[in-house]
Amino acid sequence: MFEPGMGWGGITHAIGAVVYGLFALVMLVIFVALVALLVRFLWIGTKAAQVYLDKNGPAKPAAPVSRSTATPTSTATATVPTAMPASAQPTTAPATKPRTPRTPPTPPVV
After folding, report:
1. CA angle at residue 15 from 13 to 21, to 5 degrees?
2. For residues 4-32, b (16+ Cβ closer than 10 Å) or e, as one string?
3. pTM of this prediction?
4. Domains of the chain: total
């Protein structure tokens, strides 16, 4: 009746194959969804980081001044750096009030 290696016959093999196929399909859908969510997270995070840096990052340098096409004949002269104009002076944030530590609450006396 039950011989070793035969199993329950052809019908159980077919049912097992269908179950395995459905399981594999579900796992594939889950894998693709996780990869899509990861890509979306990284893409949105990268854009958000760029917006943050554009808004709060260091100021971008101004465009370089166009120089004349004539080349100087002598490189021995040195130029003295001039003071920055008032509009280019770095501004500092107003000083904030220093934080004072709070005393811990006392436990109730029993």
Report:
1. 100
2. eeeeeeeeeeeeeeeeeeeeeeeeeeeee
3. 0.43
4. 1
Q: What is d(CA 73, CA 41) in angstroms, rounded to the nearest whole number?
A: 57
8 domain-assigned: no
Task: Dump pLDDT digits (tens) for 15-43.
Answer: 999 999 999 999 999 999 999 999 999 99
Which residues lie below 8 Å from residue 7, measured CB to CB, with a gap of 6+?
A: 13
**N-to-C CA span, the chain:** 79
96: tokens are: 């904030």
Structure tokens at 88: 């280019």
Residue 50 resides in a domain:
yes
At 58-92, the pLDDT tens digits run 877 777 766 766 555 655 555 665 666 666 655 66
**Do residues 41 and 48 touch, judged by C-beta distance below 8 A?**
no
